[in-house]
Amino acid sequence: MEIWIWLLVALSIALCPIIYNVFFHPLRRFPGPRMAGATSWWKAYKEVFQQETLAQLLFDLHRKHGDIVRIGPNELHFGKPSAFHDIYHGTNRWDKDEGLYRTPGVRSGSFVFLKYKDAKERREVLQPMFSKRSIQNVEGLVWRNANRLATAVTKANAENCSIDLLYAFRSFTLDTIMYFTFGNCVDALDAQAFSDPLIVAMDASLRALPILKNFPLIRKVAYSLPPSLIMKTLPDAERLAPRIYRVRAIIEEQLQKVLDNPEKLDEALHQTIFHRMLDPNAHRSKVVPDSVKLHDEGLTLVFAGANTVADTLLMGHWNLLNQPDLVARLKAEVFSVWPDLEAQPNLKDLEALPLLTATIKESLRHIPSGVSLTRVVPPTGAVISGQTIPGGTTVGMAILHVHQSEEIFEDALSFKPERWLGEDAKQLEQWLVPFSRGPRMCFGVNLAWCELYIAFATLIRRFDMALDGTTAADMEWRECIAAYYPNRHLHAWCQPVEC
Ligand code: HEM
């Protein structure tokens, strides 16, 4: 047969799925960009080649196409805030979607378990460590790290340097979650300019996420080789090894220290997460997971717990530093429970402060959560936003579409803590969903709030801060599973207060 006939056959085979997706797929009746319905390459093109955040594009797409937009051959995004509660409802035991949750390259771990059953079993092991009472036991750890943060900021200021607040906050949250997980940490807070190799590596690895998410084959190859092998065999690995391996290698080192010497955990000042992970009685099966599974859990906990809290601190401080009046009122409020610098308050005192609490809520509303948290509709189908959705469809919504909804939040893009102090604040609470909702909602909530109270109070009480030329363009962010900031991000001068 002539070569052109073979080419024609190959082309027809390649076109078959596109023809099916456009003309015969059960989702063909849902509106959206034609290319998005035809092929998953549309999403890949937007996220990888145009480096767009889909959730931001989706504001326009929802305006054009309505409340439901088809953004992949088998995927719908919902834009009406009430749809969030339809999808992430407490009774929905829907699977997480492989397309998104395989991105980190691990198959087990609380965040990435696809099946509710597996997630529930692991949650039974870990959740007791995150209860309000357990978190009271790590309050000391959080204060210690907040004080280390303040010391490092003071030192940098004495050297006439402004502070890279993104890296400073990430160092604080990384040391905290890592110590809480493994009973040891990399001491990122001690690194010059908050640039510990792990902080730099984690930041760089975030930029690879769009490729890893959209190209499963590249992801499989990249993750199939053990990081230790890559680090050993690649010439000049320290400089050349993809940053993502570096992150894994460092976390593996922390875990190995624990596995080699489990009794070392007892030297920690409180119970750690790995105390529980390594206790056979904590598991339903009475068996401790193998070392790969332990590593996967350690990695996902560190990723889930570090950047999210740091992003909230970042967005809060960016907005505060643009509103000096608000900072003055906050300072006065924090001062009321912390008059003497040497006698720091406890978490309970901070939790009673209305303006500080409202500021944290408003910061959580402003976090860059642009990923559609995708779920798979069960075979029986479901009703979402008043529409019947066929079983097997991937559905989701980015939290941003709830938090920036003008239908719910008046002047939604403005940072106004007062909205959480007004008469209708109680009603608004149901629309503050930074930790998501339902059976897969975040179980790090209490730790997150503890870190946020203590870090906000520490910086507000101990420093007079001013922007070091940061502009709105510097604060641009992108996200396809975890946010990163392609520009300069937040830098501020931090002058320690005397008393
Ligand atoms: C402000 C801080 C935080 C925010 C905004 C946040 C947000 C979220 C969100 C939206 C989810 C649901 C993701 C999904 O549906 O796939 C989630 C899940 C999760 N978060 Fe957080 N989180 C924060 C802090 C933490 C902390 C401190 C930890 C501690 C390790 C943590 C651990 C987890 C875990 C393990 C999951 C997966 C739960 C599951 O799928 O069953 N998070 N988080």
From TrEMBL:
Transmembrane segments: 6-24
Organism of provenance: Xylona heveae (strain CBS 132557 / TC161)
Protein name: Cytochrome P450
InterPro entries noted in UniProt: Cyt_P450, Cyt_P450_CS, Cyt_P450_E_grp-I, Cyt_P450_sf, Cytochrome_P450_monoxygenase
A Pfam cross-reference name: p450
Necessary cofactors: heme
Keywords of the record: Heme, Iron, Membrane, Metal-binding, Monooxygenase, Oxidoreductase, Transmembrane, Transmembrane helix
Family: Belongs to the cytochrome P450 family.
Recorded GO MF terms: heme binding; iron ion binding; monooxygenase activity; oxidoreductase activity, acting on paired donors, with incorporation or reduction of molecular oxygen
Positions of heme binding: C442
CDD domains: CYP58-like
Domain of life: Eukaryota
